[in-house]
User: Which sequence fits this backbone?
């Protein structure tokens, strides 16, 4: 057993209001510069929809992630030699049109306009060519099902069993915020011919070394989530850095910090690195979720604690793992699920699937729908979060419904159903974390600079590692 620590995130989709504050906060901090105009390390898309970039989930087109060939894991983009042949011509690269052509407006025409009969207009201008342009697509074009045509092209609708008509009475939607998943088995790292992308030892954050990157761009199609971008100004790849300078100071990512819905949770997970390959090679895609759960370790188990100490995981990280909100949501309660586990990269950003609107039925008191009756079809959610396995999504939704039922009984004084009576404490805890948790309960990031250097400094100084005023 080789124990590693991973900073992980869970998003509770029930609470996302699609305000895009997270995307804008991230944009202002990390990609507000030339060459990065079109990049959104964090984007929020409406589902159903084709997303950003268009059709990112269509791996037949982009050849992203891993597949099993004769029982062995192989990058979908081909073997090492096949990929080397594509060094100078790589047909599976997304183009500007697949993202969008970024633009600004001629604001000056508003400010300097002479007095006229008609109101002056600020016309759009391309941020790439500086020429006037007509806007035909954007990173959020399908917001709230705005473009019916592209909504119908969502590949998850095609793959799911059972028909949906997209008629008004059948319509459903939800928001899906996305960042890099800082995967345990990252396809971007495996595809990089220069070794410039790496997974950090101490916290599992996946980064691109800007010095090492040679601009071969193999990471871009290899990432099945399309979360690596090419900077046309610097000729280097860039991606979400999980706000590592903030993490090193015990703070969550900026998207988490600014999230209006307070739906993001961050914390430490411990996992067995020796079993990562085995988990990613699970033959049944619908079972990958279970194999990932198996490699996540119980931070309260004395054997795990002992082994983690031997691996050099610092005490404050072990403590954070024991109070990790993401561990509770993922492993303890099993209500958070990975996005498209079938890509086999073992993502470390997970989602609590959304309950569809709970309505009041005239003839009954308050009506909680059955899992199978919800407005968002179970089969659709299973395409996103269960690799087609409706069972794992149903299990998560059922727990969320049961939690609501327990809390409703609590409020109204109704009797709690017998089948839930034993777990009332668990459901109350779940409610506290999902509904009313404070900042420090939602985010438990071990403070200090990167764990290894922090320990080294402690060793050197015999104190806390800071020799400046305020250090101990
Ligand atoms: S989601 Fe992030 S870590 Fe995973 S393959 Fe894509 S870029 Fe790499
Ligand atoms: S800030 Fe939060 S609520 Fe708003 S879109 Fe982003 S994830 Fe959703």
Assistant:
């Amino acid at each position: 057993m080789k124990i590693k620590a991973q900073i992980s995130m869970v998003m509770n989709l029930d609470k996302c209001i699609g305000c895009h504050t997270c995307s804008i906060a991230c944009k202002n901090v990390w990609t507000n510069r030339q060459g990065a105009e079109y990049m959104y390390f964090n984007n929020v898309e409406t589902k159903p929809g084709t997303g950003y970039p268009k059709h990112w989930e269509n791996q037949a087109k982009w050849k992203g992630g891993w597949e099993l060939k004769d029982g062995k894991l192989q990058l979908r983009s081909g073997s090492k030699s096949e990929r080397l042949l594509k060094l100078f011509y790589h047909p599976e690269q997304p183009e500007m049109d697949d993202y969008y052509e970024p633009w600004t407006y001629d604001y000056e025409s508003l400010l300097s306009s002479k007095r006229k009969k008609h109101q002056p207009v600020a016309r759009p201008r391309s941020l790439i060519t500086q020429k006037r342009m007509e806007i035909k697509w954007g990173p959020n074009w399908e917001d709230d099902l705005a473009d019916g045509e592209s909504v119908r092209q969502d590949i998850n609708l095609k793959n799911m069993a059972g028909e949906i008509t997209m008629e008004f009475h059948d319509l459903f939607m939800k928001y899906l915020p996305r960042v890099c998943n800082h995967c345990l088995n990252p396809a971007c790292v495996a595809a990089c011919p220069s070794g410039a992308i790496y997974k950090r030892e101490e916290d599992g954050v996946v980064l691109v070394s800007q010095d090492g990157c040679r601009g071969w761009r193999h990471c871009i199609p290899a990432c099945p989530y399309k979360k690596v971008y090419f900077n046309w100004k610097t000729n280097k790849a860039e991606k979400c850095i999980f706000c590592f300078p903030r993490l090193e100071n015990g703070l969550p990512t900026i998207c988490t910090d600014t999230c209006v819905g307070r739906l993001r949770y961050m914390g430490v997970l411990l996992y067995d690195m020796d079993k990562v390959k085995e988990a990613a090679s699970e033959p049944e895609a619908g079972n990958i979720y279970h194999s990932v759960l198996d490699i996540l370790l119980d931070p309260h188990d004395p054997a795990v604690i002992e082994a983690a100490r031997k691996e050099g995981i610092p005490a404050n990280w072990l403590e954070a793992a024991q109070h990790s909100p993401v561990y509770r949501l993922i492993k303890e309660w099993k209500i958070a699920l990975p996005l498209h586990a079938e890509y086999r990269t073992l993502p470390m950003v997970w989602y609590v699937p959304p309950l569809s609107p709970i309505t009041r039925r005239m003839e009954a008191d308050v009506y909680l729908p059955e899992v199978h009756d919800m407005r968002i079809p179970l089969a659709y959610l299973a395409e996103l979060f269960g690799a087609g396995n409706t069972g794992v999504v149903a299990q998560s939704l059922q727990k969320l419904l049961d939690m609501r039922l327990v809390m409703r009984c609590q409020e109204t004084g109704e009797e709690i159903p017998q089948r839930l009576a034993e777990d009332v404490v668990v459901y109350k805890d779940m409610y506290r974390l999902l509904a009313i948790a404070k900042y420090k309960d939602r985010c438990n990031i071990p403070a200090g600079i990167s764990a290894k250097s922090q320990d080294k400094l402690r060793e050197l100084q015999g104190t806390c590692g800071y020799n400046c005023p305020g250090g101990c």
